[in-house]
């Protein structure tokens, strides 16, 4: 497949392949974490990778707390890390 | 239309086999699955194109699902058992485009929820770059993404082998594959292994792939700790029976798995009886037709005891036949008998696997007091020990109430097993009463208030 999907992560453009998850696209771009924990401020990204652990929560098109490992990328998608909640 | 003869939950091997068998025997079938494509965690592929090349069991199952109403990208968040069972559905995320009725009803439910990697806490396991082995496989196989360049794969169970092999074939350097057990574990139960001889051929093919990619396989070895600041940098290994560690530097990916944890929340919500399997997983009790003790509720696949895809296929088809038979259809008894024999053989093999891959008895000793157990609520080993020693928690349920492990977003899916073991202390086997409180989720997945409000209307 040659089509490329473009999304933004915290304002930065990011390319991905159709069918990839947001988490996969971020991983491919070298991003390993996009959230910090409430108590310890520890970084979190993908862990279980299959929708079980909820570690990878992220804001997609202004909807908070989406599982990055499950949401497929879409052209024009706006993805934000949740570091300033 | 939201009323069916049978609803199958789960689109992996057991769910697909169940849906195909029930539909083939004249029942009106709905199939609910969290994924956008059928196949579950077992059959993964980047596209339908690759699926066509597979040309195997999955494709023949797909052809038999023509009359089945498939509701992808939806999860059951509430199961209400009754003379007619109700399942309340929610999309798995807010950008789901496929539609499904908010409530499905049926006389029969076939629950095939599958399993995910079981985890034990390890110092540093919450660093980014540490992932469940199944998650690494999903990234490599389904998304075509390599999550690291220098990887360590560790835990126990044969599943580590395909994960290491796929990483190597995708271009990663697999610096070590560590199994806490020795391969000699197989020799203790030769009868079980012989029951499924094809598995031995598989083992030989892995040995060849490991030699080709120069992957060092270390037996009786565990990851003692994972080091790093805001991501993984290094891993310390040690032998299970020896002091002293060896450090592997420059590591950016650690894939962990200690067998599997079946998803039991829907089975518990249905009110079906459970038992503790040989691997100390909570599983459903089923009869020789995959029936639970709740009328019209069947379970197939890993949720009856972790045993792999071949066993799941046989159990799924049998459950589909059983639902048809219990609803008055005449089914092929010869076929059912053959499936029942396959299930018995598969169980014998699974028993051998469980015996060969126990958790190391001393794993609780590797933990530091500040090691995170519950990743969601950031509950440490010391928090759980305090709840048990100072506050007097005597079981997993009380420890959960006092220290809050398993009370976060994942509702104990990841830490439930380890928390129950830590609350109990060393040397004892878990009972149903230790595991059920960590596996019960009245609301099976987090849902928004809007969804709760709209659901009221149905």
TrEMBL record, chain A:
Record key words, sorted: Oxidoreductase
InterPro entries: 2Fe-2S-bd_N, 2Fe-2S_ferredoxin-like_sf
A Pfam family annotated for this UniProt entry: Fer2_4
Protein's UniProt name: (2Fe-2S)-binding protein
TrEMBL record, chain B:
InterPro entries the record matches: BFD-like_2Fe2S-bd_dom_sf, FAD/NAD-bd_sf, FAD/NAD-binding_dom, Metab_Enz_Cyan_OpOx_G3PDH, Opine_Oxase_asu/HCN_bsu
Transferase as UniProt keyword: no
Keywords: Oxidoreductase
Protein's UniProt keywords contain Oxidoreductase: yes
Pfam family, one: Pyr_redox_2
Domain of life: Bacteria
SUPFAM superfamilies from the UniProt entry: FAD/NAD(P)-binding domain
Residue ranges of domain FAD/NAD(P)-binding in the record: 4-315
Matching PANTHER family: ANAEROBIC GLYCEROL-3-PHOSPHATE DEHYDROGENASE SUBUNIT B (PTHR42949:SF3)
Protein name: NAD(P)/FAD-dependent oxidoreductase
Taxonomic source organism: Amycolatopsis albidoflavus
Source organism phylogeny: Bacteria, Bacillati, Actinomycetota, Actinomycetes, Pseudonocardiales
